[in-house]
């Protein structure tokens, strides 16, 4: 699959390069940054594209349990299936951090369409523990 399929885009977060121009990324790095943008954007956050994003933000106040993990898996799969056509989602796993009960890791395994290039990306997701939760 040619580079024109993957393309190039703005670096995320937005920054300048050594020459003072807006930094660009390309190839696999551009896809990884696009995935982070999809997962990190809540639907409604972009006024000109209100449906864009991932519903994981709906779970910020949910308990860090298996039910929430399952909902996050479904939301990540749905968002990436819709908004990132250059990849095939192979697997999504959500698991808690051993030391921080408010931190869940979203472990995404994906392949770039038209290649056998399987990649992995881990996205941290924080929930806000309820006030009555035991420490």
CATH architecture classification name: Roll
Low-confidence segments, given as residue ranges, are: none
Order of helices and strands: HEEHHEEE
Radius of gyration equals 16 Å
What structural category do the secondary elements indicate?
A: alpha+beta
Can you identify the CATH class? Alpha Beta
Largest sheet: 3 strands, antiparallel
Mean pLDDT: 85
Shape: globular
Query: Could you name the CATH topology?
Result: Nuclear Transport Factor 2, Chain: A
Give a written overview of the molecule.
The chain has 135 residues and is of the alpha+beta class. The protein has a single domain (3-126), classed as Nuclear Transport Factor 2, Chain: A, CATH 3.10.450. The protein has 3 helices and 5 strands, in the order αββααβββ. The strands form 2 sheets. A 3-stranded antiparallel β-sheet has the order 3-4-5, with helices on one face. It has a two-stranded antiparallel sheet with strand order 1-2. Strand 3 and strand 4 (103-112) form a beta hairpin. The longest helix has 18 residues, at 66-83. It is globular. The relative contact order is 0.16. The mean pLDDT is 85.
């Amino acid at each position: 699959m040619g580079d024109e399929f993957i393309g190039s885009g703005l670096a995320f977060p937005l920054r300048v390069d050594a020459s003072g121009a807006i930094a660009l990324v390309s190839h696999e790095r551009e896809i990884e940054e696009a995935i982070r943008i999809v997962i990190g954007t809540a639907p409604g956050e972009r006024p000109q594209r209100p449906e864009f994003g991932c519903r994981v933000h709906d779970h910020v106040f949910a308990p860090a349990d298996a039910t929430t993990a399952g909902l996050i898996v479904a939301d990540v799969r749905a968002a990436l299936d819709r908004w990132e056509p250059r990849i095939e989602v192979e697997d999504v796993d959500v698991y808690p951090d051993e030391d921080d009960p408010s931190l869940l890791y979203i472990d995404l395994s994906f392949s770039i369409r038209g290649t056998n290039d399987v990649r992995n990306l881990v996205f941290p997701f924080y929930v806000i523990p309820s006030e009555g939760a035991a420490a």
